[in-house]
Amino acid sequence: MKLLLFISILLTFQSIGQGNFGYLFEEMPADSILPPSLSRHSTIKPTIRISQQGENELSIKALTDLNYLQKNSATFKTGVGAEINAQMNNKWHIRLMAVQGATKFDSSFISTPYILSPTKTIDWYTDIHARTSYTPNKFFNFQIGLDNNFIGEGSRSMLISDYSSPYPFAMVRTNFWRIEYAVLYQFMRERKLAGYQAKFASSHHLSINAAKWLNFGIFESVIFQPKDTLLNRGFDAEYLNPFVFYRPQEYSLGSSDNVLLGVDLTANYKHHTFYSQFILDEFYLAEIRAKSGWWANKFGGQIGIKGRFGNSNEFFYRVEYNFARPYTFSHLSEELNYGNQGRSLAHPYGSSFMEGLAELKWQKDKLAAKYFINYYLKGGDNNGFNYGADIYQSYVNRPSEYGHFTGQGRQQNGLNSAVTFSYRVLKNEAINAFIESHLNYSVQQNSIKHLLVVGLRSYLWNDYRNY
């Protein structure tokens, strides 16, 4: 046994490494459908890719995020920064991206991952994404950083999305035969009156290529607080174990930690991909069969299809449906819910919602155009009770035990659409001039809002404006 351990360590640090990692922002040609492969796994993003550069590279690029929003009163978002990329010996890849700016945003129309002060006219913000990757060989990859992570093939993710603020993390990924196994440790926090309260998460994802065209995955995650009224336990050593199932581990600890389980499925056919996800927070099979609407039957899912068509595949399309039952991702307190700094770690609508979306993209040389549309139905709190839509509300304050349904409470439904035209001004710096036209329609208010956005932006990570 010791001999096998020694050999594995030797191979880890002596074999030839290759690869760097991509960006979180999914855009053509990166969102093209890759040829089927038994060894390639694209579920976890940023994806690890074979390096096409030399052994040692260093680059510094300018970043911009300059937006002017035309509304009743002008709002804006300005930001400038830099990106530093370094690659050493085809094993180490280091990236630091930082933008510093000021913003005057109307969060009622376009949301932002930053927590803005309602009393200030202008907010200053700092956006930092940093990641260090070590790929000693084709079997292992180690990452640490301050960044987001994403699991899935969809526009949204019901497992882990990049919607919340960046957080410190550590990740280990191993790839062998037809399997990729990833362990992710997340170090997050929630804002309190006296500062911040820490919270941790530990997640596993197993990806299996059953065939060149078929992949399925298994996901589990546990969210826990390092300190409560009884104990200051820090990061539980039991949750550092990369080969443990969290639910029995949670029971053995006698804790009230929040455990979620999920599965995902991907099937490829030529230039088209079918994908789906299912997340399980809590359930009781007898209550599901009884169709009683029990509050603790908490689950959600996703189904979608995307692909390429046209001459040289310059068109990209996607159709997707997402949903979550009331109280999914919520818990006793915000230190145990599935969120970070006031934002969901999964879908931006939180829970108690249904959403259908579609998008169409075209790109040729420096020009690109996109059309996005979604229809949503979501619930909301009513009469002082938590109806299960806001994951930051404790599920203890629920109006009843039974009769719960998706979209309950103060129901909201409507339609969002956005048309974007962009032109790449500086290719090496990935700076794009763009113009966006947004339309929001609310069924309850029977009103239409329009917003026009123009500016310059570096498309390196998602800045969600479509929900």
Summarize the helices and strands and which ones pair or pack.
Layout: H1 2-14, E1 20-21, E2 44-45, E3 48-49, E4 56-70, E5 75-88, E6 92-104, E7 123-134, E8 140-147, E9 150-151, E10 167-176, E11 179-192, E12 195-211, E13 214-224, H2 246-253, E14 258-269, E15 272-282, H3 285-290, E16 298-309, E17 315-324, E18 339-340, E19 343-344, E20 353-364, E21 367-378, E22 412-426, E23 431-442, E24 447-458
Antiparallel strand pairs: 1-3, 2-9, 4-5, 4-24, 5-6, 6-7, 7-8, 8-10, 10-11, 11-12, 12-13, 13-14, 14-15, 15-16, 16-17, 17-20, 18-19, 20-21, 21-22, 22-23, 23-24
Description of the molecule:
By secondary structure, this protein is mainly beta. The chain has a single domain (2-458), classed as Porin. It is 6% helix and 50% strand. It contains 3 helices and 24 strands. The longest helix is centred in the first third of the chain and has 13 residues, at 2-14. Mean pLDDT is 85; it is low at 1-16 and 249-254.
Quickly list its features:
single chain; mainly beta; 18-stranded antiparallel barrel; 24 strands; 6% helix; disordered N terminus
Quick structural overview:
Helices cover 6% and strands 50% of the residues. The protein is mainly beta and 467 residues long.
Major β-sheet annotation? 18 strands, antiparallel, barrel
Topology-level CATH name? Porin
The proportion of strand residues reads: over 45%
Average predicted local confidence, pLDDT: 85
Order of helices and strands: HEEEEEEEEEEEEEHEEHEEEEEEEEE
* Unreliably modeled segments: 1-16, 249-254
The CA-CA distance between the termini, in Å, is 53 Å
Number of domains: 1
Q: Count of DSSP E strands?
A: 24
CATH H-level superfamily:
Porin
The geometry reads as: globular
Helix content percent band: under 10%
* Coarse structural class: mainly beta
Gross CATH architecture? Beta Barrel
What is the highest CATH level, the class? Mainly Beta
